[in-house]
Amino acid sequence: MKQFVIKNKFNLLFVFVFFYFYYYPVISLDIKYRDDYIRALFLNLGWVDEGRFISKWIINFFTFSDGIYTAPLTQLLSLVCIAFTVIYAAQTIFKIINFYSCSLISLIFLNPFYLQNMSFGYDSLPMTIATCCAIISALLIIQNKYYIPLTALLTFIIIFSYQTTIGIYVNALVFVLFIYYLQNGWNHNDKIYIKAIISLSIYLLFCVIYKQIYPYLFDGSASRIVISLSNVKTNILQTISYIKLLFFNIHYLLYITAVVTLLSFFIFHYQQIKTKQIKPIKVVVNFLIVGLLYIVFLLTAEGASLLFKTDISDVRLLIAISFLWVLSFYIISLASKTLYYLFYFCFCCFCFSFSYSYGNFLKDQNHFFDMTMTNINYDIGHTPGVSSAQIFVLNPFPLSESNKRLASRIPLFLPLYGEQNFDWLVAVKMSNILPYTFSGDERMMCQFVTARDSATRTGISSVKTAIYNLYYYQNNIFIDFHTNIKNFCKK
């Protein structure tokens, strides 16, 4: 390890700086993101209940405490893990560290969906460590005689830290096998295919064990891994819809890349046919294999839809989706390195532009929230008799006007932002600003909504603004933002 770091210190530094600037918009803002608010406010990480006790150990180890918020340190440590994994994978797969090998592997993390993962002050580090463990685990079948115990160890870390990375393990393993197949065919001398089957069996065994022990060891209401075939189609369609949102305004780039990928694979095989290195029938087989790979990558893009009970909703689950373009760019490189560099440069420009636009989106939204909270605090503070009131938030916090326009141009910002549908999150964020307690008692909310919508509106006073309405009812404060109204009176 020490020799590896010393030998590659400049390469590690270069990759670290590259991804630092890519993820800089979400790191530099130092904005708590979603679950970060609850964990930082109540110091209740909640991972153990979900079977992710290794995530808690990781945070405790690096923070020397039990759940203290230390971002952006956690995100910077994540970048260190990414840099190490990229260099190690480039060396292991291609036997050389150069711009081509590092750039191709970097595409795994050059993933706009991973911006949500890196937005978390707490989860970013456990998620990234699990992702890196999954990639390294897939590389163990390449001339490593200790691959069985090491695979078991890394699988244990993944299962009990961030189970979604099972998908990236599968995709990384399949990609490694595909490269080996193109270079060596079905050569069984080093037993790499047998090793892959054994490694996959280890992962499957851990999944089954986890599923069995989860109800007895952890208090979560639902297991993170549930063997189910019911939502495969729904999850694939959801994944495709997110891909469409990502390339919403540049569909032509997808079409061009698809055509160039097919032509590149054809040119690669045509050159082999001319030199009699391959038979035409094998070319057909190879094209079928590539088509199958894309299906596999799509299936496992969100962490293996076969292993999830519910439909995917958070784009952070799409860690493994980057192998869709990793495979395409690798095929292009087989025909022409120059063409590969051109596509890589264009894709980098797109990813960086997307990242910095999203950073501005977050910054504007946070500024809008702070200004709105200042006004709400003023309105509440100048109302007598509410010093001990509870605060109820009826609806999600709205987007700023500028972000509404931006989201209409780049729709993926909404699922990346991931807060527009959580009224509870607004209440938690307010508890950091307003000197009052908040409550999520839906029974009380239903009682208020019924009284507000009645003809008499007895005992209700209000302050109305363009963004929110404040209601005072039974010594409680109800904040109603002008967004979708939730039904609190469901039976």
Chart the SSEs and their pairings:
Layout: H1 2-7, H2 9-28, H3 35-42, H4 53-63, H5 73-94, H6 99-106, H7 114-119, H8 124-139, H9 147-159, H10 166-184, H11 192-217, H12 232-246, H13 251-274, H14 280-299, H15 323-335, H16 337-381, E1 390-393, H17 401-409, H18 413-417, H19 423-431, E2 437-438, H20 442-452, E3 461-464, E4 468-473, E5 476-481
Helix pairs in contact: 2-5, 2-16, 5-6, 5-8, 8-9, 8-10, 9-11, 10-11, 13-15, 15-16
Describe what this molecule looks like in 3D.
There is one protein chain. By secondary structure, the chain is mainly alpha-helical. It is 62% helix and 4% strand. It contains 20 helices and five strands. The protein has helices at residues 2-7, 9-28, 35-42, 53-63, 73-94, 99-106, 114-119, 124-139, 147-159, 166-184, 192-217, 232-246, 251-274, 280-299, 323-335, 337-381, 401-409, 413-417, 423-431, 442-452, and strands at residues 390-393, 437-438, 461-464, 468-473, 476-481. It has a five-stranded mixed beta sheet. The mean pLDDT is 85.
Pick out the low-confidence regions. Answer: none
Spatial order of strands in the largest sheet: 2-1-5-4-3
Taking the sheet with the most strands, its summary is: 5 strands, mixed
> How many strand elements?
5
Shape: elongated
- Relative strand content: under 5%
* Structure annotation, total helices: 20
N-C termini distance: 59 Å
- SSE string: HHHHHHHHHHHHHHHHEHHHEHEEE
Strand pairing plus helix content: what structural class? Answer: mainly alpha
